[in-house]
Design goal:
Layout (H helix, E strand, L loop, with lengths): L10 E7 L3 H12 L4 E4 L13 E3 H9 L3 H4 L3 E3 L3 E5 L4 E5 L11 E4 L1 H11 L6 E4 L3 E7 L4 E6 L5 E11 L6 H5 L4 E16 L8 E5 L5 E6 L3 E8 L5 H4 L2 H8 L10 E15 L3 E2 L2 E3 L5 E2 L7 H20 L9 H25 L4 H14 L3 H8 L35 E4 L4 E3 H5 L4 E5 L3 H16 L2 E6 L15 E5 L4 H8 L4 E4 L5 E5 L4 H11 L29
Parallel strand pairs: 1-2, 1-11, 2-8, 5-13, 11-18, 22-23, 23-24
Antiparallel strand pairs: 3-7, 4-7, 5-6, 9-10, 10-11, 12-15, 12-16, 13-14, 14-15, 16-19, 17-18, 20-21, 20-24, 22-25, 25-26
Length: about 575
């Protein structure tokens, strides 16, 4: 971990308040995109207490973009099953979604403090990113052209720091959210849960169990490095102080393990569950993300992941505005795209909590009977096992172009693009995102993108800094048209999944954003119109700088390793 104060920076393009997972992920992406970034953290070091334990395929894909997966994966358990059991230990339902369309397992256990530390260490790659611990935000003024921050350091000295934009990633009690006057709408559950982490896992079994036991609902989760997470519902008569007393803690653990007095305790903490979403995610040059923008019960394991989605959505937009590629209005799309999905995730997390936590035996019995009936039907069983109840992000409005009236059931625009394996002409097999690069890309099926975009479309693609990628069947991979130029990357559809994707959707040209969402799609002849409309959707600045190496300070070699641009 870097020293508590790595820099005395007094200005930055973006200042992030809070060195939690959302702030650290955002800082890594901004660092990748060449944005001068300063992270302020009020505490003297990273938090190290019971937190998130589930990371999904969307978050791992974001870490892939940020070139952090090698540091993160050692602290994960892939294909982390989730089993609901009743008070008798009978299986009610199992969630086993496997690997989805985005190139990573859909459920993974992880150790959040170690992943957070990996993200912090990742910032050492970027000389234009600084972190200041023991620096507390005390106020700020949005002056229109910038934001002036008042900050107090560890010695009590007052500092004035100028930011192009301010992003509050400062948790559920966010000072930034309160300062912009955003309401934090929702509820707080009256129930409390004791969360306990132990070393030398006394059970040693993998995966996660949600104990729907009316006597005392519980959670038991196998995690990396021999760590296990236990959670227990506290009764109204049990105080927070009583819950953490050794004798009381041992009684609760005794229902799950034979020798509770022998556990190697790491930490214990009492939590309440909040279900809240801020009324607005942006006001002027100030934005909020992560827990500052939304809080949700833990049952879906999506608090951490929702914050990473915020970071992925916001980072490229801040970079585009900072570099002068896009107008400030692009940042309005962050609120338009993220707030609705965050609310949907809060809602589903609430509903799952209601399945787990009944303490009335009649209610719990009715739930068990309903679960047994539902899982007798293969379609209902798949719905649960494959996590089809999880609301996937879909952006109907924002930095997207729907050439026709969108049908949410069928459209590909505003949804994440798939990431199968592809083959290069050099014989290498690699994930698609390694070919697309960390910025915009335009993907065509078996058609030279330069020949179909037209002069204006190519000019827009250049202003976007978009990489041109042609996907072909493997049988055509090594054929080269006489007129084809070297600035188109050609890859083979080694698994057949991309052909199936294009078979299933009536488009052949796809514009993929840096956060891997489809910004627009069309048939070949409509590609010029698509690019013209897209320039408006991403608020391209007339006469502004082109993206690419002239603006973004990185180059992506064919091996996918991050390297500085020359």
């Amino acid at each position: 971990m870097p020293a508590p104060s790595r820099s005395a920076a007094r200005s930055a393009d973006v200042v992030i308040v809070g060195a939690g997972p959302t702030g650290l992920a955002l800082a890594n992406l901004l660092g990748l995109y060449g944005v001068r970034t300063l992270v302020l953290e009020a505490e003297g070091e990273l938090f190290d207490f019971p937190r998130g334990v589930s990371i999904d395929d969307e978050s791992l894909r974001t870490f892939q973009t940020a070139r952090l997966t090698d540091a993160v994966l050692p602290h994960t358990v892939p294909h982390h099953l989730l089993r609901f059991v009743n008070g008798s230990g009978r299986l009610l339902a199992e969630v086993d979604p496997g690997e989805g369309d985005f190139g990573w397992p859909r459920r993974n256990g992880f150790i959040q403090p170690l992943v957070d530390r990996a993200m912090l260490t990742g910032l050492d790659r970027f000389p234009h990113v600084d972190v200041l611990f023991s620096h507390r935000l005390t106020g700020f003024t949005d002056r229109g052209e910038d934001v002036l921050l008042s900050v107090t350091d560890a010695d009590g000295e007052e500092l004035a720091i100028r930011a192009g934009h301010l992003v509050g990633c400062d948790g559920g009690r966010s000072t930034v959210r309160k300062s912009i006057g955003a309401a934090f709408e929702g509820t707080t559950e009256p129930t409390r849960w004791l969360v306990v982490d132990v070393r030398n896992d006394p059970l040693g079994t993998p995966n996660a169990y949600l104990g729907c036991d009316p006597r005392r609902p519980y959670v038991s989760i196998g995690l990396p490095h021999g760590i296990r997470r236990f959670e227990f519902l506290l009764r109204p008569s049990e105080t927070d102080e009583q819950a953490v007393e050794p004798a009381h803690l041992h009684r609760m653990l005794g229902s799950l393990i034979p020798h509770p007095e022998r556990v190697d305790l790491i930490r214990k903490r009492v939590y309440t569950h909040h279900a809240r979403v801020a009324s607005v995610f942006r006001k002027g040059r100030v934005l909020i993300a992560g827990d500052a923008a939304h809080l949700m019960p833990v049952w879906q394991g999506q608090g951490f992941n929702s914050g990473i989605r915020d970071a992925a959505n916001l980072a490229w937009k801040l970079a585009a505005v900072t570099h002068g590629m896009s107008h400030e209005g692009l940042l309005d799309t962050y609120d338009a795209e993220r707030r609705g999905h965050a609310a949907a995730m809060v809602d589903v997390s609430n509903k799952i909590g209601k399945v787990i936590s009944p303490t009335n035996r009649l209610v719990a019995g009715a739930r068990d009977a309903l679960a047994a009936g539902l899982t007798a039907f293969p379609r209902a069983k798949r719905y649960l096992a494959e996590m089809r109840y999880k609301p996937m992000p879909y952006y109907r409005h924002g930095a997207v172009v729907h050439l026709t009236e969108p049908d949410p059931r069928a459209t590909v625009v505003g949804r994440l693009f798939i990431q199968p394996q592809v083959a290069s002409r050099e014989g290498e097999r690699l994930p698609l995102d390694e070919v697309l690069g960390p910025w915009f890309s335009i993907v065509t099926w078996a058609n030279d993108p330069r020949s179909i975009l037209g002069p204006q479309g190519l000019e827009t693609a250049e202003r976007l800094g978009a990489r041109l990628v042609e996907v072909r069947p493997m049988s055509q991979l090594h054929w080269k048209a006489p007129e084809q130029t070297g600035d188109v990357t050609v890859v083979g559809d080694v698994t057949g999944r991309l052909k199936k994707w294009f078979d299933d959707h009536p488009v052949s040209v796809v514009v993929v954003r840096p956060d891997r969402f489809v910004a627009g799609a069309s048939i070949a002849q409509r590609a010029p119109q698509l690019l013209a409309d897209l320039s408006q959707a991403v608020r391209l600045t007339p006469g502004g700088p082109h993206a690419g190496p002239s603006v973004l300070p990185f180059a992506l070699p064919t091996d996918g390793a991050l390297a500085p641009a020359e």
